[in-house]
Each structure stands twice: as C-alpha cells, then as structure tokens.
TrEMBL record:
Highest rank taxon of the organism: Bacteria
Gene Ontology biological process terms in this record: error-free translesion synthesis
Cited SUPFAM superfamilies: ApaG-like
The protein, known as: ApaG protein
Pfam families registered for this protein in UniProt: DUF525
Gene, per the UniProt record: apaG
Domain ApaG span(s) in chain numbering: 1-125
Length: 125
C-alpha cells in the first residue's frame, strides 16, 4: 500500500462572522475528506500542517490524529472532518501530510496534502 491508495481532498471556507478586519483576525474552516481506496483498513495516526500567512510568516502544527480522534477507515470508506485555522492576513496557504497505519502490515506511511488557498472573498475585503 502506498499513499496513492489514499485520496485527500480539502474544501476551505471563510468564516466572516468569526473574523475581524480591524483585529487582523481571519477565520477559515476547512473540511477534509480522506478516502481509503486500498484493500486494507488504515488508521489515521497523526497530522502535520504548515500554515503560511500572506505576509510569508509560517507556522507548523503537528499532533496525534484529527479532531481528537485516530479514526479507522475501512477499504472503500471515507472519513470527513472539519477544523479551523486563524490567520492574521486575509490570504494564506496550508499544506501538510497525514501519517496513516496500514492495520494489515502494521506499517506507517505518509500521505501528502497538496497546498490549498485560504482567502477572504474579494467582495468582503
């Protein structure tokens, strides 16, 4: 099994009601779907995110699982969750990786998450 057997898609959304232009606080939610296209179950063990502000400043976030869980995703199944990121600029980029465990072989492997843009819609900014 390789990372090619796992598909990750991300849908970001600006949270206007939680954001404040005057405080340079821009809140985004992002919904991640992890689709296990392999013949074996996998457990999502850890996450890594690199969040880059529009200013070029970046921070890295690492942790166990996602949203307090280390979900088991069976063959053909999808796991979906929503989380948030708070930026100090109206535009930024996130990218990262998930560490998954093949429960059949007990081998861990990383699946990259392609960069995705967080941006305040033009009509709001």
């Amino acid at each position: 099994m390789s990372g090619l057997d796992i598909e990750v898609s991300v849908t970001p959304e600006f949270r206007d009601a939680e954001s404040s232009d005057s405080e340079s606080r821009y809140v985004f939610s992002y919904t991640v779907t992890v689709h296990n296209q392999s013949p074996h179950s996998v457990r999502l063990m850890a996450r890594y995110w690199k969040i880059t502000q529009g200013s070029g400043d970046s921070q890295e976030v690492r942790g166990k699982g996602v949203v307090g869980q280390q979900p088991l995703i069976g063959p053909g199944q999808r796991f979906r969750y929503t989380s948030r990121a708070i930026l100090q600029t109206p535009v930024g980029v996130m990218e990262g990786a998930y560490t998954l465990l093949n429960t059949y072989t007990q081998r861990a492997f990383d699946v990259p998450v392609s960069p995705f843009r967080l941006a305040v819609p033009r009509q709001l900014h």
